[in-house]
Amino acid sequence: QVQLVESGGGSVQVGESLRLSCAASGRTLSGYAMGWFRQAPGKEREFVAAFSRTGGYTYYGDSVQGRFTISRPNGKNTVDLQMNNLRSEDTGVYYCVAGRGVITSAIRSRDAYDWWGQGTQVTVSS
Length: 126
What we know:
Blueprint: E1 3-7, E2 10-13, E3 18-25, E4 32-39, E5 46-51, E6 58-60, E7 68-71, E8 78-83, E9 92-100, E10 115-116, E11 120-125
């Protein structure tokens, strides 16, 4: 079993930055895709960013491309999300995810991931 714990959420103003972190435990996630989804009030969960299974490729949602950066600063069991130039529409609960056997064509699909964290709230106000 894999446990994912997010941290770093909070409230910021439009244009500011925030960094989220996720730590995984339970097993070494070598060969697993890891990333982030988010869910705004009244909306479906949306893909934000992810690393491929090999860790060699990164993928981003269209709405965050160029503003958010995903990284693995402390090895395969951690994943960070640096969020710059935040907008009000970035508000939501951000979930860390991990998946075994996630193929490239499914990297943006919620159903491709086996484990989800509890989520951390990000609020961006103007």
